Amino acid sequence: MFLRDKGDEVFLTLFFAVVIIITKIGLDQFWSRRIRERIPGQLANILSIFSTIFAITVFIVLSTTIWRVEGSWLLGALGLSAGTIIGFASSDTIGNAIAGFIILFSRPFVIEDRIRIGEYMGDVEKITLIFTTLITTNLEEVNIPNRQILNSEIVNYGTTGPVRISVTCAVDYERDIEEFKKHLLDVSTNVVGVAKVPKSFVRVTNLGKYAAELSLFVFTFNPSGIPQLKADLKEKIWKMYKDKDVSLTIPSLIKTVPASISEVNHIHGSQVKNSIDESQIEE
Question: Band of the pLDDT at 258, cuts 50, 70, 90?
Fold first, then answer.
């Protein structure tokens, strides 16, 4: 009976719903193939979100016109909907949507940026109102809720650099530190991905009990290649250690002491016990 009396309204509603959905899908595909090549991905993403809101609004207006909904009833329905939304404003979905708008307009990162958020590091693939999609260095797709992103520390490596990275190693105090710095710089010149300008440099970053800690700082214009670049640098440094006969282990405090404290006391007397801590001797 309902379909007989309201058949035209039902048909028109379904017809416009299908037309709007097909138009929206077609526009999204057009933007992804053509427009994204000419405008920044972040702007294209914002246009896609607003086109979705516009499509929903058009459907609501057409539906109310087709069904001849009175203005007072429509205002009441909208008021009820607004109250419901406010009532659930503390929910994760609304919180993520608000965070999504903040990310889209404050732009702490944009599409294609290499970023680190917590334990995840990857390239920004997509930013929606609810979550942000990263493609990690392991080629995994990770969807992170936007509210979690705003509550996390964001490290943005950009898209082209230059980005500075460092690799830390140690050398004992018997070595010539200036010569060792030169060896590290030579390593950096033989690794693909290290920029010539700005120049690489080496700094002493810590002085330990048995060895000095040195950090090799290099620059790259390819943020997406940082994990591989670090791996290559470490491998080259390891080979340099082997070629230069540099020990990879931290030197012992005393290399010729007997195997136990009791033997030390037996040979040298009780004075040694007060000057040597058993925890400092590597057996």
Answer: very low
